[in-house]
TrEMBL record, chains A, B:
The keyword DNA damage does not apply. Keywords: DNA-binding, Transcription, Transcription regulation. CDD domains: CAP_ED. Pfam families: cNMP_binding, HTH_Crp_2. This is Crp/Fnr family transcriptional regulator. SUPFAM superfamilies: cAMP-binding domain-like, Winged helix' DNA-binding domain. PANTHER family: CRP FAMILY TRANSCRIPTIONAL REGULATORY PROTEIN, DNA-BINDING TRANSCRIPTIONAL DUAL REGULATOR CRP. InterPro entries: cNMP-bd_dom (IPR000595), cNMP-bd_dom_sf (IPR018490), Env_Response_Regulators (IPR050397), HTH_CRP (IPR012318), RmlC-like_jellyroll (IPR014710), WH-like_DNA-bd_sf (IPR036388), WH_DNA-bd_sf (IPR036390). It comes from Paracoccus pacificus. Residues 1-60 form the Cyclic nucleotide-binding domain.
Length: 223, 223
DNA sequence: CGGGCCTTTGACGCACTTCAATCTAAGTGG
DNA sequence: CCACTTAGATTGAAGTGCGTCAAAGGCCCG
């Protein structure tokens, strides 16, 4: 990833709730998140918003634009974010002439897709409480994978959560309260935090295989 | 695509409702569909099935295995299918040394992802009737793109449809009857057929942009 | 003719929505 | 420092889409 490091410069700070790319755009840059939480979303004709992915530090927002010229969805920040822009041409060049990096980027795309599949399952088959629990487990695992799980705080509003789960804010509130009353999560100020991961994972029947993470290193042997 | 043509040999015919690849497998071949309809799916702990993608002629079933060694979902036929196997190593080789083909395969993956996003929107925001109408519009458009839309017949059972839409077979039946009573679709034997595409598309608020198809050729000029 | 899949239909219950009101915390300006 | 504002969280009551359970009706094929 040496070559990628050369590209990362000029980090930009964006406020919460700001659009980065809009549906229909043909953006010049690919964006990489360094801090904060962003999302992919679409607006519905009735004004509702559907969030189809949460993007956390280490995620590329829009690798697709190197291949698909027009965005079929929008991307925006949920919390304040720090990001870097990478010229789309540079990504194209990497894809075509550096097969190892191309392979890594392809891996990232495929994991995105696997997450989408699991969200689709969640949306179709799990009731809102298990769906929300499952989301929290996934986010914890993904934050853990980039070393940001301690402490794990989710500073999302209930409306943002609701748009992600495909439910109403009112119901998000009730489900959240239910998970809290069962001592799986708690509120730290306005952020959600997990206080009993084991119980949450059991409740959500969470299996992280779909994230295709490298197996955790067992460092108990080489101290 | 000359190079791909060399690879296509030994088409295999599979009966309906047969697994092609199971979750957890580490398959040796990538599969390309020539005829029939297959699907990606996951089984739930309670025995329910969630269908996360419909695969039609021209679709690769499992391009991912060239990069992600373990399948996080299963693939099976819904109707009888004709498919060809392509050794995974061959795909890997194409990805690494033939950037134009690699680009085409990457395009295919990104469109898969765009479809998944739209399904997620459908599942979260659209009621079952509009969701089903939207699915029919998508399938018609995809079949049309590979020249198989005339006549357009969907030989899926209501249970298969229900697993795709995340609803129960009973409700699928009612929704189907409702679309029929509104003269948008009809049954041709046991297959579903569209009798009023315009009305169906308007009802579903269908916009095909997410399929990233090349714009239809206007051949009225060069006769 | 019979058996097995699908499809179709009905009654009832629950998860989630809708509408609406209240409450709280964090500004903002005087 | 305190009115005033405003976004978000919380709570209640009533309505609806969809699920569940159960039974009956078509269609294909042996």
């Amino acid at each position: 990833m040496h070559r990628l490091n050369q590209i990362i410069r000029d980090p930009v700070t964006l406020p919460a709730r700001q659009d980065i790319i809009r549906q229909g755009d043909d953006p010049e840059n690919v964006h990489l998140i360094l801090e904060g939480i962003a999302c992919r979303f679409k607006m519905m004709p009735d004004g509702g918003r559907s969030i189809m992915a949460l993007l956390i530090p280490g995620d590329f927002c829009d690798l697709d634009v190197a291949i698909l010229p027009v965005m079929d969805h929008s991307i925006g920040t949920l919390t304040a974010c720090v990001m870097v822009d990478i010229p789309r041409k540079q990504i194209k060049e990497l894809l075509e002439h550096h097969s190892r990096i191309a392979r890594t980027l392809r891996w990232a795309t495929l994991v995105d897709e696997a997450v989408l599949r699991e969200w689709l399952v969640s949306m179709g088959q799990r009731r809102a409480d298990k769906q929300m629990a499952h989301l929290f487990c996934e986010l914890f695992t993904r934050f853990q994978a980039v070393g940001l799980a301690e402490p794990f705080l989710l500073p999302l509003t209930q409306e943002q959560l609701a748009d992600t789960l495909g439910i109403t804010p009112v119901h998000a509130q009730r489900v959240l309260a239910s998970l809290r009353s069962r001592n799986m999560i708690a509120l730290e100020g306005r952020a959600i935090t997990i206080i009993d991961l084991d119980r949450l994972m059991a409740f959500a029947e969470f299996n992280p295989d779909y994230l295709h993470l490298p197996p955790p290193v067992d460092d108990s042997e080489d101290v």
